[in-house]
Amino acid sequence: MSVPEVPRLGFGAANVGNLYREVSDAAAHAILEAAWDAGIRYFDTASHHGLGLSERRLGAFLREHR
């Protein structure tokens, strides 16, 4: 069985779930867009980041970038 490769650099998406301070939808999108434009394709989030807000924002963003 082969082991999937994971990039060395990823994006921790807690910040787009309002973990430390409130982030608007537009700012969250801009943050994710900047990460995407920088070549990031590995994103990490968890449901406790903003009670799922991070996952919802990241999911909406990734749907646009299929």
TrEMBL record:
InterPro entries: AKR (IPR020471), NAD(P)_OxRdtase_dom_sf (IPR036812), NADP_OxRdtase_dom (IPR023210)
GO cellular component: cytosol
Classification via SUPFAM superfamilies: NAD(P)-linked oxidoreductase (SSF51430)
One GO MF term attached to the UniProt entry: oxidoreductase activity
Name of a matching Pfam family: Aldo_ket_red
Residues of the NADP-dependent oxidoreductase domain: 8-64
Protein's recorded name: NADP-dependent oxidoreductase domain-containing protein
Species for this entry: Rugosimonospora africana
